[in-house]
Amino acid sequence: MKDDVLISFANVNKQFETAEGPSMVLRDLNFEVKRGSFTIIYGPSGSGKSTLLNVLVGLERPTSGKVMVDGVDIYALNADERARYRANTIGMVYQSNYWVASLSALENIALPLYLTGRSKGEAIGEAKLSLARVGLEKFANYRPTLLSGGQQQRISLARATVVSPTLLIADEPTGNLDTKNGDVVMNLLQQFRDDFNTTVVLVTHNLEYLPLSDHRISIKDGVVTEDSGHYQASSATLTKARNTMSDAIDAKKSPVKRKRRV
Amino acid sequence: MIKHHRLRGVIKPQILAHMSLKNLFFKKLRTSLTVLGVVIGVGSIVFLVSLGLGLQKLVNRQVVGSNSVKTIDVSSTKSKVIKLDPETVKSIASLSEVEKVAKVYNFGGRANIGTSKTDSIVFGVDSDYLELGNLKVVEGSGQTLADGQALVNLSLLKAVGISDTKSALQKDLNVNVEIVDDTKAGAKKNITLSAQIVGVIESGSGAEVYLDSKGFLASGVVNASQLKVLAKSQQSVPELKKQIEAFGLTSSSPLDTLDQINQIFNLFNFILVGFGGIGMIIAVLGMFNTLTISLLERTREIGLMISLGARQRDVRRLFIMESITLSHLGGLIGLIGAYMSGRVVDLVLNSWAASRGVPDRITAFDLQPWIIAATFVFVTIVGFVVVYFPARRASHINPIEALRHE
Ligand SMILES: Nc1ncnc2c1ncn2[C@@H]1O[C@H](COP(=O)(O)OP(=O)(O)OP(=O)(O)O)[C@@H](O)[C@H]1O
Ligand SMILES: [Mg+2]
What we know:
Chain A is of the alpha/beta class and 262 residues long.
């Protein structure tokens, strides 16, 4: 495998057993995603996008095929190793927000660090930086459920990126947000990719965001119908796409630079 | 695989502990009620058992008192037929487990000090009896009685109107006793003996005088009224009693009473544990209920943790820690509560006893170290057993299902 390829799906099939019999949700998927790319997966509802992401994060074993991430066949790992893979390599953002109710926003952000064995002090310290990146420092001690949808999604992003993951996965992160908040979230995703070379894989319904990507995969009825391949978007395209959203971006005003952990 | 070498470790136990505490604290009311259940369950068992054991100890001490548990009182219920004559005494003394045999002779009589008179039982005792009888001396001495010396009890002094026990010492005492002259086929005979009071004892409710038995023997008394047999060991007492009863004699020992009391108390303790146990069962069900509700409520939260990279065992440990925290907190507070209630009982009992003139301090509540240790072992086991199913279910939560949005 070439070194600049982070993800590769080879002949991946996923079949669910349902009351009406077997249902083929992913059919013979073959694609690669390059390190540091911004990939958007799109397609109609029910086409299998979320299932694909679940396979990618190691939570849904494919019926057949091979999923390689960062040079590792993730379904050749045992359950504990796969848990560690999730904790260390992946950041995940969902459409809805999920929290550990008894913990503050800050400690929810620290959770992935806890799971990778960091001490409380260390984790809280890093979580603060992550919270600052999304511009919500003053909500550190709030219960996350008390915050607005847009704020919650930004805190989700802070949590997803706190371990400096190799791969940031987002399943319709803007699905429940208005345009303004949606743009803020999209911009943050781009920022992580630009600042830390984090590979971003995004599922979205909103085709307006397509220009932000440098790699697009269209999926329908579990089949890849179009794979743009990795291409370098012209900086003009990127700049244009960004300018359309710049009004909504307040997080970018106080960028906190972090060293990427090796 | 090389790249996975950079993977960090797994969640620290202290972080899991921190998270479980946070969660328990988050549900303050539910946590307090659950802990309260355990407090009541553990507290009532510990309190009742400690009280039972304390009372048992107290009563046992009262029964045994200063009497040695190795002594056997021997008497004859058919004194016309079976007599405690010198041959019988000799046979008993020659039994292998017998250490010592003390003889006592007692008759009814009248005692007078100065002009005051009273009816009294008059004991003729030997030095062994004074040793084994463990008379409770309140004034003067009671270890030996020379010829012409006497011990009297408080009841006698009261009967003759002497309230200052000290002033009774050195006073002269005359006793008129109706004895049985065994040398003349058991004919009754009155003799008068005089002695000086050398000690005052606390015993019995009727007036008693203790004299050296020589005065009786000289007047023709041969058969003893009672024997006190000292066994070589406490273990040999039951066997020795059987051997003595084989002579047709009656025997009794403090050990008999002790056995009966212990039987009653064992039953009593058993019932107390039963009552406490019902409380504990309710507490355990409460814990199970709390943990199960917590599991159902937190399905998403746990799904989230698993998707973020928690392992099954991390989830299991989180639940186990919560359960152990609940049960130990309950156990600890239960112990403290039981101890404090016990102290209150003792305090009340003592002030009540003091108001009735009992001089000694009573400890009815006896919280023994092994009960404390057993409590911690017990709540640990309870914590683990109760959490077994909830923890298992939690660790098997499917994160995809848990996080599927509505
Ligand atoms: N555990 C399962 N058992 C049976 N069928 C399933 C299961 N999970 C998903 N499916 C089916 O697989 C298909 C694809 O679902 P998936 O959630 O991946 O779609 P999606 O592309 O993410 O749709 P949406 O855009 O609405 O989120 C659906 O028809 C769904 O019903
Ligand atoms: Mg979906």
